[in-house]
Amino acid sequence: MIPDRLNSLFKTASQGLDVQKKRLEISAQNIANSRSTAKPGSSSAYKVQTVINKAPDVANFMNALDAQMNPLKVTRNQHFPVSGGAQSVPDYGSSNLGPEMEVRETEQFRFEYDPKHPDADENGMVAYPDVDMVKEMATMVSANRLYEANLSVIEAAKQMMKRSMEI
User: Is residue 84 over pLDDT 90?
Assistant: First the structure.
């Protein structure tokens, strides 16, 4: 059985993996749809998407920190009597300290003059999603590196568990 402290570590790292995977997916979708068009005013026009990361709630972090620190205050019941008898075992796995994400769509378009295009408006302008290729490629590289970092955390935790079993 995995101790709750390590389970919490794996949970946080896996949430980081999920966020970076989503960033990669969204960037790939934006690049793939950068030349897609739709009739003017159509609801089927592709909207550029962005993944917004959110840090965990500070109160949630403080609760998790207190839960981790409380067992360290009393090492033996003979040293400091605990009111109410035995200590309660904190729930380390329930804290959600991993990153959170939200996907936002923006309706930004760039216009090109092509009067023969089937989706051109009455002025001959075609609306394409305003995808910044440099930004999308940088996002993909960054997400890939952060994904690898989260994998390294998981691998280090697994190695620590293996070494602790050798003792």
Answer: no
What beta strand segments (E) does the chain contain?
48-54, 100-106, 109-113, 125-129
- When divided into structural domains, the chain yields a total of 1
Q: How many CB atoms lie within 10 A of CB 19?
A: 21
Does residue 26 lie in a domain region?
Answer: yes
What would the two tokens of residue 60 be? Answer: 């949630």
**Which residue range is the domain that position 11 belongs to?**
7-56+96-166
Structure tokens at 27: 């960037």
Beta 48-54 vs 100-106: how paired, if at all?
A: antiparallel
- 118 located within any domain: yes
Predicted TM-score of the model (pTM): 0.70
Separation of alpha carbons 121 and 118, rounded Å:
9
Return the pLDDT at 92: 44
Q: Are 161 and 151 in contact (CB under 8 A)?
A: no
